[in-house]
Amino acid sequence: MKVAINGAGIAGTALAYWLSKLGHEVVLVERAPELRTGGFVLNLWGIGYDALERMGLLPRLLELQHHSDELRMVDRAGRTRGGYPSRVLLKLAKGRMASLARSDIAAAIYGSLDGRVETVFGDSITAIHDDASRVHVEFEHSPPREVDLVIGADGLHSRVRQLVFGPDAAFEYPMGCHVASFEVAGYRPRNGNTYVAHTAPGRYVARFPMRDDRMLFFVLLRDEHLKGRIPTSHLERKMALTDALADMGWESAVIRSALQQVDDIYFDSISQIRMDTWAKGRVVLIGDAAACPSLIAGEGAGFALAAAYVLAGELHRHGGDSGAAIARYQALLKAPLARKQKQAESLAASFVPRTSLGVRVRDYATLLMRLPVFPKILMGRYFHDEIALPDYGI
Ligand SMILES: Cc1cc2nc3c(=O)[nH]c(=O)nc-3n(C[C@H](O)[C@H](O)[C@H](O)COP(=O)(O)OP(=O)(O)OC[C@H]3O[C@@H](n4cnc5c(N)ncnc54)[C@H](O)[C@@H]3O)c2cc1C
Fold first, then answer.
1. Hey, whose CA ends up nearest to atom 30 of ligand 1?
2. pTM to 2 decimals?
3. Helix (H) or strand (E) holding 289
4. Which residues of 272-292 are buried (b: 16+ CB within 10 A; e: fewer)?
5. What is the pLDDT of residue 283?
6. pLDDT value at residue 382
């Protein structure tokens, strides 16, 4: 088959890996001028971890892990108010969990394609005409192509989804918060391998030490702290964050000043994508484009990796019958993803509490994670995948 994949993030590169391995002719189209960097460190466990292992990328990626020994919650004076050792989470994942920079995952997968996949950077699919036997695809810059299958792997604000299924508003469920992440070189203090977080009502800021003396910052803001303006340009993002971090206490003054040197800020709404179907004819969505669970659910990258393996595996198993393969891909993954999204809804309020009391209760509650049975009671269900990856022999 000839397959056009729009988006070279985690889902797009992973699907390109499997399809090219199975002998299909893939063109990967990425809007950015090169593979995107940036974004924060993700924990991969369960089926996402299994999918990486099946790609043979686990040993390399485990070397690139970012280790944190402890998650610490501090108040505005920097005093510890909550937190627990990171090994608690590793134990819940039965030792099969990796903390990886999002960009390292995408780069490792892309690197493993080894030139087998044609990649067009700085371009995007702009029109799709599906005549049921072939799909005519147009691009912003490249000449049009005829393909057998078009994949929308272009993230939360997927262009393919907009073109074929309708506007974002029909499928996007904003969770009332925005997320930002950025890196700062030489930031002090570092506190060894500790993830340190501070929450003020409606605002959360955390720092995570990375390799090469870099510090990763992660900010969550309830939408009311953006004062009705969603920043789009880099400068607007910087200003919005500088504004939002004012008077937060802890290290917020130092972080605001460090922010002035930052040249890449990831900034997006925390939203879910909920759709009745992920496919229309020969156009299929995958990853965040299909069913973003949101960072609150915490397994978006894992599900993207698993979905790429399942979609490729089902296409392989069903030979030329792509309709049956796509139906099976959805049948396997839709229900677990819907439940993951439900879990995120119930966690959302405790992520960034609205009141000082809420923050204090949440911080103290995390201390329970230090006791023997509580991790399983409080977090066990988030580490349990209801499905196992099928074995496609690929
Ligand atoms: C730069 C970046 C930083 C991120 N940082 C975080 C983070 O800090 N926290 C978090 O929870 N999640 C983050 N995410 C999202 C997270 O990585 C995804 O939820 C998850 O990995 C699912 O992967 P995906 O491949 O479906 O989507 P994504 O990883 O979002 O990948 C989508 C890809 O499609 C490309 N694309 C978008 N529109 C078009 C278009 N019109 N044409 C062609 N290509 C297009 C994007 O540039 C991107 O490379 C980030 C994503 C990106 C792109």
1. 155
2. 0.95
3. helix 288-291
4. bbbbeebbebbbbbbbbbbbb
5. 98
6. 86
> Which pLDDT score, from 0 to 100, does residue 145 have?
98
Tell me which DSSP letter residue 67 carries.
-
Ligand 1 centroid distance, CA of 155 (Å): 5
Please state, in angstroms and rounded to a whole number, the distance separating the CA atoms of residues 31 and 122.
Answer: 4
Beta-bridge partners for 192: none
Check if the beta carbon of residue 83 is closer than 8 Å to that of residue 73.
yes
Which uninterrupted H or E stretch holds 216? Answer: strand 214-222
Nearest ligand 1 atom to the CA of 286 is: 26
Compute the distance between CA of residue 188 and CA of residue 178 in angstroms, rounded to an integer. 26
In this structure, the residues whose C-beta lies within 6 A of any atom of ligand 1 are 6-12, 29-32, 36, 38-40, 102, 124, 153-155, 159, 179, 181, 266, 287-289, 295, 300-301, 304
Task: Choose the residue to mutate in 35, 266, 292 for probing ligand 1, maximizing ligand atoms within 8 Å of C-beta.
Answer: 266
Confidence at residue 381, expressed as pLDDT on a 0 to 100 scale? 86
DSSP string across 331-389: HHHHHHHHHHHHHHHHHHHHHS-SSHHHHHHHHHHHGGGGSSSHHHHHHGGGG--S---
- Cα of 243 vs centre of ligand 1, distance in Å, is 26
Measured between alpha carbons, how far is 286 from 299 in angstroms, rounded to an integer?
14
Q: Is domain 2-65+98-171+271-352 classified as CATH 3.50.50.60? A: yes
Count of CB atoms situated within 10 Å of the CB of 101? 23
- Other CB atoms within 10 Å distance of the CB of residue 188: 11
Q: Which of helix, strand or coil describes residue 260?
A: coil
Hey, which bits of 80-185 come out as E strands? 80-85, 97-101, 118-121, 125-130, 135-139, 145-147, 149-152, 172-185
Averages of pLDDT over runs of 10 residues in the chain (394 residues) are 97 98 98 87 94 96 92 97 96 94 94 95 98 96 98 98 98 96 95 95 96 94 90 96 96 97 94 98 98 91 98 95 97 95 86 95 96 92 88 96
